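Hey, I'm writing a tutorial for new members on how sequence and structure tokens pair up, and I'd like a real worked example in the thread rather than a made-up one. If someone can provide the structure for the chain below, I'll link this post from the tutorial.
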Amino acid sequence: MIALPLPAPVGYVAWGAGVALFAGVVRGFAGFGLSAFIVAGMSLLLSPQQIVPAAMMLEILASLWLLRSVWRDVAWHWIGPLLAGYAVAVPLGVWCLATLPEAPLRTAVSIVIFAAALIMLRGWHPNLRDTIALRLGTGLGSGFLSGLSSIGGIFAATMLFTTSLPGARLRATLITLFFVSAWYGLAWAWQQGLATGGTVLWAAWLLAPMLIGIAIGRRFFARTAEEQFRRLVLRVLAGIAGLGLVRALLAFF
């Protein structure tokens, strides 16, 4: 059997495996957060340009692993507008990733998501009307942020939490969205020269720990009540936004 070459020094790969394991647990439980945690964790060692395309590739593999079990729960009336927004906005986000500094925008977005998650944890729930404008706007915002720094899923999850969708449908919708949108984002990243052979190597090395984490997260979701699920996911949102804020501030200074 031919051993895979390492994409980076062994310490970097070991750190990445630990990050992928934890990110997989979050993804298996909440239906989102994989890319955000991988990018936040791995960006301590690597540039976003190196790790964002690998995170997109892992999103595709994670979604394939989960789709069969959630297919019946997908809120299909959300999928079309979300994907239309992604199609328009992902190229702009990828272009910004390739040409502009991301720290100021990431800081602002992380502050907004962190504040929104904390407010909802305190009991405020806006219950926005489930309209085509809300779905399309969520797709546009999520697509731009996914192309820029792989935090679009966090934006989408935050917006979905302002609706009355049950937890199982929310989770299934996010998983389906990420499966399709990650292919699109990866294609644009490849076109911009951001995805390389190193991207494939990173995805290969992080795949096994990610799948182990997803299996753990799925078991946890199956044992969690609806209200507990919503509160735990809001904590995940706040945690990811906090990590994004720390990462952006470190990059800024």
